[in-house]
Amino acid sequence: MKYIELNNGVQMPQVGFGTYRIDNKILPRVLNEAYQLGYRQFDTAWKYGNESVIADWLRDYNVKREDVFITTKINLDSLYFWGYHYGIDRLKNWRNFKSIKKAVQESFDNLRMDYIDLFLIHHPYHNFMEMYEVLTDFYKQGRIRAIGVSSFLPCHLKALHEVSDVVPAVNQFEISPLNTQKELIKYCQDNGVAVEAMSTFSHFRSNEPRKEITESELIKPIAQKYNKSIVQVVLRWLIQQNIIVIPKTWYSQHMKENISVFDFELTTEEMTIIDTMNQGRYLNYDPTAMTKYAPKKYR
């Protein structure tokens, strides 16, 4: 396994294991199989409803806490006492909210951990600066080893220095051959923020891959050349850009394939061929809709 050194010296496995929309009934078995194959980074979130399942897996399968790298995320939904609602009346009525500190602590309680390796803000919500300030406090207490963000654009990243002297260690956002995100990748890496790819093969609400990618006639010859799958080639394309990946699957063969991406290297020409697929099109939601939440001077 190759590791990426974050801006504070923390070592993060470059290939992780995504857990969203995997049935909690089979998740412990799936996690343990992934662990046996060599996965050490596991990505969860309060929103996924499986933090406690991951805690159960660590306990029931006798996995040492120090042997795994756990990422979780705070979500706007986790601040509501009475369920999911984006109505403006709820946003203005703060009595309906838990404190951000309480929401962060809830993830600690669910995971039953003394520390969390990486804690992200799930999206650049209207209160992302307040969320980051709270995460900074937990980080400085030593309870979080690294803090970061997800789907943040430069305007959001620039605003964070107003509330914290801690540069985000990671920005997790959508990157795929259909949305190569070259400018955002460069901005993050130039500013010491490690890049982590999500939603590379499908929309986050779907377990069905986008065939435009997984059956691409452009990538197929490259895959055949290396005796790899198209998915492996795309993961390798990301890895050679120094990007962290978190593919998700519950199929044994796919688990093996997704971690077997360090024994070949794409040529510059092959990297460019995949780049040419770019349409600047999100498979997920478009975070530019959230630029309005950044202070005007950074937009």
Automatic annotation (TrEMBL):
Keyword NADP: yes
Matching InterPro entries: AKR, NAD(P)_OxRdtase_dom_sf, NADP_OxRdtase_dom
GO molecular function: oxidoreductase activity, acting on the CH-OH group of donors, NAD or NADP as acceptor
Positions with a binding annotation for substrate: H122
Alphabetized Gene3D superfamilies for the sequence: NADP-dependent oxidoreductase domain
Domain (NADP-dependent oxidoreductase) ranges: 19-278
Reactions this protein catalyses: hydroxyacetone + NADP(+) = methylglyoxal + NADPH + H(+)
One Pfam family it belongs to: Aldo_ket_red
CDD domains: AKR_AKR1-5-like
Active site: Y48
Site note Lowers pKa of active site Tyr, residues: K73
Keywords: NADP, Oxidoreductase
Similarity annotation: Belongs to the aldo/keto reductase family.
Name the record gives this protein: NADP-dependent oxidoreductase domain-containing protein
